Amino acid sequence: MSGMVQTLRERRASVWEQMKGLADKASEENRAFSAEEQGQWDAMTEELDNLDKRIKSALDTEQRAKDADDAFNRLHGNGGGQGGGSGQRGTGPQPPEGQQASELRNWMRGEGPRFYEVKPSGPIDVRSLTKGSATAGGNTVPTNFYDRLVQHLIQTSAILQSGATILNTDSGETIQIPKTTAHSTAAIVTEGNAIGASEPTFGQVPLGAYKYGALIQVSRELLDDTGVDLEGYLAMQAGRALGNAFGAHAITGTGTGQPRGVVTDATTGVTGATGVTGAFSSDNLIDLFFSVIAPYRRSEAAVWMMADSSIANARKLKDTTGQYIWQPGLQAGVPDTILGKPVLTEPNMAAVGLSAKSVAFGDMSQYFVRLAGGIRFERSDDYAFNTDLVTFRALMRADGALVDLTGAVKTFAGGAS
């Protein structure tokens, strides 16, 4: 970690201490913020958010520099060798990583077939994704085209950051996933009496393959400039577009013509008090935490998800001992936490409001994401012929649903009035 990042983190810690001091003073005097204090709080909140963005940008820049050095070393034979490569054309054997990059760039320039399919290795891949950021695990995997594209998918979707279970399949036919709706129970049995049967209750969740698409246009000059990181640009644009589209449905999708969202399937753990316009209190968040079944709330995949405006409210909350329940992550790769669990920003979560489900908490590995096949790219030189732009079309098929409805994920809903 560079000195600049360390300086930014120190400044972030200082701003947070100032915010705590401001809130503590108002709390001790049993009053709300004055107009001047509210202005100071808002300014410091904005600075805290800006520092978060600068820290992330600096860490990403450091990682890109490291990736470039690694690529240069591989090019000159100073390490690397044949990559385990996830990207591929068609379904044949994996080419070496350098060959993949060369094939991809040649295809972008119009050499070869009209389509290029980027797929993970193996016919079926079932895994649990961790955060795609460099400091939270991204450094441990090769950075070929598929990995870079999926990293951007994850960065724009909180449900993918949270550790959702990913099922990669070659084809897109509907698959049935068992869904747990109730667990077995036991009871005291007196001598000589029969033991009652109690079986878990299961249902099935059909996971299909809804098609998401995005058009990306690139100038001919950009394609011909060999000094441009064209693979990185295309991966970023496609990953963000597809990640944003799928991410919205993964939170609040209805399941009709689109995936079922985790908020759609999760049950309400806590309902807020009336007369507070749907706002949550520190007690509400503590109750929500303990409304999730113990094994799930202890899971490494247990996280909080809320919108930026809700996080701003959570920063002000204290427990009964006067301690803030929101704790900033002050080290590289350590996220902000509430009650020891990471807080993820998700713009598709509802803002605080009457009857609004503004907070979700639980084990997000119980949300299954199905990705069918790879991400298919197609190139057209004719779509924007009069502007000399080359058009790329990115297509992804995906579905998702929460598979454990016994209390793995719960939501907070604002009071009704």
TrEMBL record:
Region (Disordered), start-end ranges: 23-42, 71-100
Coiled-coil regions, chain positions: none
Bias (Gly residues) ranges: 77-90
Primary location class: virion
Subcellular location: Virion
Phage capsid-like C-terminal domain ranges (all copies): 137-405
Protein known as: Phage major capsid protein
Organism: Streptomyces cylindrosporus
